[in-house]
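Severity: low
Component: inverse-folding endpoint
Summary: output formatting inconsistent between runs
Steps to reproduce: submit the following structure tokens with default settings.
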């Protein structure tokens, strides 16, 4: 078990830092707590999995979800 932990410790470190950064950015953008963030992430993942034509291809999922309206919202926030 120790060898497995050592092998993945750097990956785990980056994953945890990514999730923390993601939470901080979402909190500053829409002001939600951590539990609400996790709930929204879970709902979003579930929606994308069950409503995207090709869930194995991240680029196609991104194109489906990233519409011009979202770009307008982000521009207004900044």
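Observed output (run 2 of 3):
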């Amino acid at each position: 078990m120790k060898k497995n932990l050592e092998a993945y410790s750097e990956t785990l470190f980056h994953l945890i830092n990514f999730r923390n950064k993601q939470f901080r950015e979402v909190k500053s953008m829409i002001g939600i707590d951590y539990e609400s963030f996790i709930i929204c992430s879970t709902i979003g993942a579930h929606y994308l999995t069950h409503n995207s034509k090709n869930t194995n291809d991240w680029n196609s999922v991104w194109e489906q979800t990233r519409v011009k309206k979202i770009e307008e919202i982000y521009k207004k926030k900044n």
